[in-house]
Amino acid sequence: MKCKKGSKGFTLLEVLVALAVAGTGLAGVIKVAGGNAYNAQHLQNKTLAQWVAMNRIAEIQVKHEFPAIGEKKGDAEMADRTWYWHQETKAAPFPIPDIQRRLRQVEINIYADEAHKKAPLATLTTYIASQ
Fold first, then answer.
1. Backbone angles phi, psi at 73, to 5 degrees
2. Residue 4 phi/psi, 5° resolution?
3. Backbone phi, then psi, for 27, in 5-degree steps?
4. 31 CB-contact burial (10 Å; exposed 0-12 / middle 13-18 / buried 19+)
5. What is the CATH number of the domain that holds 37?
6. What is the value of pTM for the model shown?
7. What angle do CA 104, 59, 105 make, to 5 degrees?
8. Is 22 left (phi over 0), alpha (psi -120 to 50) or beta?
9. Which domain holds residue 22?
10. How crowded is residue 102: how many other Cβ atoms within 10 Å of its Cβ?
């Protein structure tokens, strides 16, 4: 293909503008990809924390124990990580005294750090009846 005698190609200014447009577009793509990676990790952590909370409730139910009112703390291993749980047991919030004696409200909070400095990743509340 032959070029016209007056044609000299792209000017430096045109090349710089094209690079600026391409760079801006690529920066947006990288930002979106980074956000998606963060969201995927956050959702994975929340899912695992929810499973840890469900496992803690299952432990209580399998032991057929009627939990005493109060607080407990502990940890659990899942997915090669240590998760920290805080359990608070209260009388059931029902106005009927007989139900309050025979029913406990158990709330499990799951944390990623032992100091519980951040908000819990998962919270699960259930009711357990005496046998």
1. -135, 155
2. -70, 155
3. -60, -40
4. exposed
5. 3.30.1300.30
6. 0.72
7. 15
8. alpha
9. 12-129
10. 16
Would you say residue 1 lies in a domain? no
Give me the number of domains the chain comprises: 1
Nearest 5°: phi and psi at 90?
-130, 165
Highest mean pLDDT, choosing among 20-29, 38-47, 51-60, 111-120: 51-60
Residue type, 112: A
Question: 83 lies in a domain?
Answer: yes
Of the candidates 49, 68, 50, 70, the one whose C-alpha atom is nearest the C-alpha of residue 60 is 68
The per-residue pLDDT for range 64-118, each reduced to its tens digit, is: 889 999 999 999 999 999 999 999 999 988 888 887 888 999 999 999 988 878 8
- Residue 125: which pLDDT band, with cuts at 50, 70 and 90? very high
